[in-house]
C-alpha cells in the first residue's frame, strides 16, 4: 500500500494511513492470532527512519522502496523484486495498488486486492493521451489479475455492480468499506457560517464547475457563501478554465483554490465548514463524503455511482444531480438558511459514520478475511 507519514487528504494514501491506524488499535487481536503485517510501501526510503522509530511494532513492520519514473512502466518490476524477498515467508498478499496486486498473482501468492477506483469509468475523464494509456494498461492488468485473485475487496456495493459488467463470477468479492481516521471523528465544530468545503483533486471528473455555477446563483440571491476547493490539480487546462470562469463572473471573493493541504489544515477546514459539497460525475466511495460525515458536517453530493450507498437523502445529507445547477444551489441554500437542520443532518451523518467507518472496525474485518484465507 502507498503508506506515507505525510498523510494526504484523498485517495489510497489516505486509506493506507487510516487502515494502519486501525491495525495499530487492534494489536491485541493480531498478537492473539499470531499475525504480523509487513507493510510494503513505494512512498520512498526517506520515510523509513521516522516510521521505524515511531510505530514499528512486533505485529506491524514497514519496508519502503523508492518508485522509479515512469511509474506505470516500472512499478510492476519494482514491486516484483521487493515481494520476491518475502515469497517463502508470508501467507498472503493484500494490495491496495494495482501493481502490487499484479505482482502478487504473478508470483503465485494468495492475493487480495482492494479496488479503489473504477478504472474503466475514470478513464473517460483522462486529461491527455498518456493518462488514458496508463488507465488502459492498468485495466489490462486488472482483468488478468482478477482471474487469479483469492478475493477482491469492494469498498462499495457500486464496485460489485461495476465488476458484474465484465465478469459474471463475483463470488470472490468481499464488501469492506474504507476506514476513516480518528482525527475526523474528534473534530469540534467551530462553524464559519457560509463556508462550503469542496475537497478533491481538480479534474473534469470532480466537476467543480457545477459547484462554482451554483455559487454564482447563490451570490445573485445575496446568500452569504464562500467555496474553498482543496486538492491537487490533475487537469491543468480544466483548472485554468475554472479560474477564467471565476474571474469573468467576479466570484474571486467567494471561490478559492488552496491546493492539496496537510491533514491538520484539512481538519481545521472541516471544523469551520457549514457544508461539504461534491458535484462529481463519477465516484467510487469518496473519502471526502466519509470524512465530512465523521466530522458531523452536512454533505451535498451527487446522486451517482457509489455516493448513494453512503448518504441517505434528506437524512444524513442531500443528493443532487451534478448537472442541475438550480437544484445544487437550492439544497445548499436550505442548509445555509437553517442552522438547526445543519446540526440535525450532521449528527445523523456522524452516527452513521461511527457505525460504518471507524478504522478499528475496518481493521477487524480485514483481519477476519486474512484468517479465513489462512485457515483454508
CATH architecture descriptor text of the largest domain: 3-Layer(aba) Sandwich
Query: How many H/I helices?
Result: 16
- Helical proportion? 40-55%
The spatial strand order of the largest sheet comes to 9-8-7-10-11-12
Order of helices and strands: HHEHEHEHEHHEHEHEHEHEHEHEEHHH
Q: What is the rounded distance between the termini?
A: 25 Å
- What is the rounded Rg? 21 Å
CATH superfamily of the largest domain: Glycogen Phosphorylase B
The low-confidence runs, each spanning 5 or more residues with pLDDT under 50, are none
Average pLDDT rating: 92
Number of E-state strands: 12
β-strand amount: 5-15%
Concise account of the structure shown:
48% of the residues lie in helices and 14% in strands. The protein has 376 residues and is an alpha/beta fold. It has a six-stranded parallel beta sheet, with helices on both faces. A four-stranded parallel beta sheet has the order 3-4-5-6.
Task: Summarize this structure as a short list of keywords or feature phrases.
376 residues; alpha/beta; Rossmann fold; 2 domains; four-stranded parallel beta sheet; 12 strands
What does this structure look like?
- The protein has two domains: 11-179 and 358-374, Rossmann fold; 182-356, Glycogen Phosphorylase B (Rossmann fold, 3-Layer(aba) Sandwich).
- 48% of the residues lie in helices and 14% in strands.
- It is built from 16 helices and twelve strands.
- The protein has helices at 11-25, 27-32, 48-55, 71-84, 98-106, 119-122, 129-148, 157-164, 182-185, 208-220, 236-248, 263-272, 287-295, 325-337, 339-357, 359-374; strands at residues 37-41, 60-64, 93-95, 111-115, 151-154, 173-175, 195-199, 226-230, 255-259, 275-278, 299-302, 318-320.
- Strand 5, helix 8 (157-164) and strand 6 (173-175) form a beta-alpha-beta unit.
- It starts with 10 loop residues before the first helix and ends with a helix.
Amino acid at each position: 500500500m502507498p503508506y506515507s507519514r505525510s498523510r494526504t487528504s484523498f485517495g489510497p494514501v489516505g486509506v493506507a494511513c487510516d487502515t494502519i491506524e486501525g491495525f495499530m488499535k487492534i494489536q491485541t487481536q493480531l498478537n492473539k492470532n499470531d499475525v504480523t503485517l509487513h507493510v510494503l510501501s513505494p512512498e520512498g526510503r526517506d520515510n523509513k527512519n521516522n516510521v521505524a522509530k515511531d510505530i514499528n511494532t512486533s505485529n506491524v513492520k514497514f519496508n519502503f522502496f523508492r518508485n522509479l519514473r515512469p511509474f506505470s512502466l516500472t512499478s510492476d518490476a519494482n514491486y516484483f523484486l521487493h515481494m520476491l524477498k518475502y515469497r517463502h515467508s508470508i501467507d498472503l498478499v493484500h494490495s491496495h495498488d494495482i501493481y502490487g496486486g499484479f505482482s502478487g498473482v504473478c508470483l503465485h501468492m494468495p492475493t487480495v486486492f482492494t479496488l479503489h477506483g473504477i478504472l474503466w469509468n475514470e478513464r473517460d475523464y483522462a486529461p491527455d493521451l498518456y493518462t488514458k494509456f496508463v488507465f488502459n494498461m492498468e485495466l489490462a492488468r486488472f482483468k488478468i489479475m482478477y482471474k487469479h485473485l483469492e478475493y477482491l475487496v469492494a469498498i462499495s456495493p457500486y464496485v460489485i455492480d461495476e465488476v458484474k459488467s465484465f465478469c459474471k463470477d463475483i463470488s470472490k468479492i468481499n464488501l469492506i468499506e474504507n476506514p476513516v481516521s480518528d482525527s475526523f471523528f474528534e473534530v469540534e465544530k467551530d462553524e464559519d457560517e457560509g463556508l462550503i468545503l469542496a475537497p478533491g483533486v481538480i479534474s473534469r471528473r470532480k466537476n467543480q464547475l457545477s459547484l462554482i455555477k451554483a455559487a454564482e446563483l447563490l451570490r445573485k440571491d445575496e446568500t452569504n457563501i464562500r467555496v474553498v476547493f482543496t486538492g491537487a490539480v490533475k487537469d491543468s487546462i480544466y483548472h485554468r478554465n475554472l479560474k477564467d470562469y471565476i474571474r469573468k463572473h467576479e466570484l474571486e471573493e467567494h471561490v478559492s483554490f488552496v491546493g492539496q493541504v496537510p491533514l491538520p489544515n484539512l481538519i481545521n477546514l472541516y471544523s469551520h465548514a457549514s457544508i461539504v459539497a461534491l458535484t462529481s460525475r463519477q465516484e467510487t466511495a469518496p473519502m471526502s463524503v466519509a470524512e465530512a460525515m465523521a466530522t458531523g458536517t452536512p454533505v451535498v453530493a451527487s446522486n451517482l455511482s457509489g455516493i448513494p450507498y453512503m448518504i441517505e437523502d434528506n437524512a444524513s445529507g442531500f443528493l443532487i444531480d451534478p448537472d442541475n445547477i438550480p437544484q445544487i444551489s437550492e439544497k445548499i441554500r436550505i442548509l445555509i438558511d437553517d442552522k438547526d437542520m445543519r446540526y440535525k443532518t450532521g449528527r445523523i451523518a456522524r452516527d452513521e459514520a461511527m457505525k460504518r467507518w471507524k478504522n478499528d472496525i475496518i481493521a477487524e474485518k480485514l483481519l477476519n478475511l486474512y484468517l479465513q484465507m489462512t485457515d483454508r
